[in-house]
TrEMBL record:
Keywords: Membrane, Transmembrane, Transmembrane helix. The keyword NAD does not apply. It comes from the Bacteria. The keyword Methyltransferase does not apply. SUPFAM superfamilies: Alkaline phosphatase-like (SSF53649). Residues 1-29 are annotated as: Disordered. This is CDP-alcohol phosphatidyltransferase. Gene3D superfamilies: Alkaline Phosphatase, subunit A. The chain crosses the membrane at residues 55-74, 86-103, 110-128, 164-188, 200-220. InterPro entries: Alkaline_phosphatase_core_sf (IPR017850).
Length: 595
């Protein structure tokens, strides 16, 4: 009979004995053993290089403290990014130090890591706030604005090239991940330092808390700002309130969108005073009040508006102009378009999705509802499916691929405004038709970064757009303008002059006795062009040959010509739809939220 020998402890293979990794149960290199070996190697290195190890440890600690304190004191706007903001005592640092000192080791490590991760995430949100405030005049919305990051990447690709956009995206992801990870590691490092010097750390925390409370009570300031601050907590609280307010607004706006003063008006009772007229609603990208009043841009833009007013008058056209306050600023043009045409205040993406998913009457759809107009959209900026066309009431939409353009892109803009208008004339406005035309035209040549800018060519020379090859090649590069505020202002002003000239020359050349043009800006340009704290006002003009068209708006008290006076009436953009429908004979038949 074979003898079975018990497997004694002394016979067990050592932990580092080689084994067959493919055999179940066979011993292999243990991860913990490998980690232990690395730690042993690190301890050996520290023993051999004590001075260097001390320097590394102190530098690491110092950098950790700078990183955490910097994040706690970081503002969320570029304007507030000044040295005095970082010479303050953050209450969050004192509270965190006290909490970490009270915890045993494992909970302390977990709490420090969570605190650092949350602080890293808040830092990312503050940086997003900076960018959104600079470009869109508002803070980042944690619920609604993630989709706009794709638009930002597309903008960089159009302005700086695909490689730059790809590297920018990679850099943004790396920065986000790096900030969160480094902030967590820094917080853990500082927590361990506090625990290693518990008594001194406790005294320091007590002193810091006493100084903080004293500064609050006495209102102590350094360099013009309070020495004691809770800026990080207030930033987190603001983000939380923004999320809650957004969720509440969604339900309230859905109810508001169901109420419509003209929602049940029969087609026969909509805009009867404009029967037989060709109506064009044109939006000029970023055409804001700053273009007309800023000392840098206003002289050139003003001369263009005066010259074009005079040229139109010679052709028999006259204009009235006022101001509208846009629902958006610096970008998100579709919010301005939908606000103007729906009569609702559409100032965020959720509202846009809500209103375009419903049946609220748009100004353009009112013309379709009459059955007396053909309705078209000229959309050179649209480069993908655009289901909103049905909501706007457009029978046909010409996007960037439908207009026969064979010339170069001008940065973000797919084609020059003059070409888009000439294509509109060729494809729709100049055709023989049984019914008048209502068109929505969105011009894009004045879209940032305003480089290169097209220039006017003879209307008979436009052709398929090849004429613009040399113009684009000789133009200013976007990279030379995009980071230069003064240069951006100059080029922006030139782009507005070009767009206004293109549109009014088209009207002068192709307009008839029955053409009515309504044109306006969708929003102000970004803050570094329009200026900090600039209004959201944009110019709006109505141009026609038939005096009855302008007589109908006499009580609006708008300025004669294309340039509105400084004291001309200022209305919310959402009020225009109802005023326009009323002025031209529409009869209200309201629908309500309960209908």
């Amino acid at each position: 009979m074979p003898v079975i020998t018990p497997f004694r402890r002394s016979q067990r293979p050592p932990d580092d004995a080689p084994g067959d990794p493919g055999t179940p149960g066979a011993p292999g290199p243990a991860p913990l053993a490998a980690l232990g070996a690395r730690l042993a190697h690190w301890r050996t290195w520290r023993t051999r290089h004590r001075r260097t190890a001390v320097v590394v440890r102190r530098v690491t600690t110092g950098l950790s403290a700078i990183l955490v304190l910097g994040a706690l004191l970081l503002p969320n706007t570029f304007v507030a990014l000044e040295p005095n903001r970082f010479a303050r005592i953050p209450a969050e640092a004192v509270v965190a130090a006290v909490l970490l000192l009270c915890l045993p080791r494992v909970p302390r490590l977990v709490a420090a890591a969570l605190f650092g991760t949350a602080l890293g995430a808040l830092t990312v949100l503050n940086l997003l706030d900076m960018g959104f405030t600079e470009y869109l005049g508002r803070s980042f919305n944690l619920v609604l604005d993630w989709g706009l990051l794709d638009d930002a990447q597309s903008y960089v690709a159009d302005s700086m090239g695909g490689a730059a956009a790809a590297w920018a995206a990679v850099g943004a992801v790396a920065l986000t991940a790096g900030l969160v990870v480094l902030m967590a590691l820094a917080a853990v490092r500082l927590g361990e330092l506090l625990a290693a010097h518990r008594e001194r750390a406790a005294r320091g925390a007590l002193m810091a808390a006493t100084v903080w409370m004293t500064c609050v009570a006495l209102g102590v300031q350094t360099f013009g700002v309070p020495l004691a601050t809770t800026s990080a907590s207030r930033a987190a609280e603001a983000q939380a309130h923004r999320v809650v307010d957004t969720l509440r607004d969604e339900a309230a706006f859905a109810k508001e969108a169901k109420a419509d003063r003209f929602g049940a008006t029969p087609g026969a009772q909509l805009v009867p005073d404009l029967r037989g007229k060709d109506i064009v609603f044109a939006f000029i990208e970023s055409y804001g009040r700053s273009a007309v009043e800023d000392p840098v841009m206003a002289p050139g833009v003003g001369r263009t508006l005066d010259a074009r007013t005079e040229a139109l008058a010679k052709a028999g056209f006259h204009a009235r102009s006022g101001w509208l306050t846009s629902a958006t600023y610096g970008g998100s043009s579709w919010l301005g378009h939908s606000t103007f045409l729906s009569g609702l205040w559409v100032d965020n993406q959720q509202r846009y999705r809500t209103v375009t998913a419903g049946d609220h009457l748009t100004l353009t759809k009112a013309f379709e509802k009459t059955g007396d107009w053909d309705t078209v959209g000229i959309m050179p900026g649209v480069q993908k499916a655009w289901p909103e066309a049905d909501w706007y009431g457009l029978d046909k939409v010409y996007d960037a691929s439908d207009m026969g353009y064979r010339g170069p892109k001008f940065s973000w803009s797919t084609m020059p405004d003059q070409y888009a208008l000439e294509a509109f004339q060729r494809l729709e406005h100049g055709r023989r038709r049984d019914r008048p035309l209502m068109a929505e035209v969105i011009l894009t040549s004045s879209h940032q970064p305003w480089a290169p800018i097209p220039r006017m060519v003879g209307w008979d020379e436009v052709g398929d757009g090849s004429v613009y090859d040399g113009i684009e090649a000789a133009g200013v590069k976007a990279s030379d303008v995009i980071t230069d505020s003064a240069r951006s202002k100059e080029e922006y002003g030139k782009s507005i002059q070009y767009s206004v000239t293109s549109l009014t020359q088209w009207l002068e050349r192709y307009g008839t006795d029955d053409t009515v043009l309504v044109f306006l800006g969708d929003h102000q340009p970004i803050a570094r062009v329009s200026g900090n704290h600039a209004s959201r006002d944009v110019p709006v003009s109505i141009v026609a040959k038939d005096p009855k068209v302008l007589d109908a708006i006499d009580d609006w008290h708008w300025t004669e010509g294309l340039q509105p006076a400084k004291d001309a009436p200022v209305w919310r953009m959402s009020s225009f739809r109802d005023r326009f429908l009323t002025a031209y004979g529409s009869t209200p038949h309201p629908t309500g939220a309960g209908d």
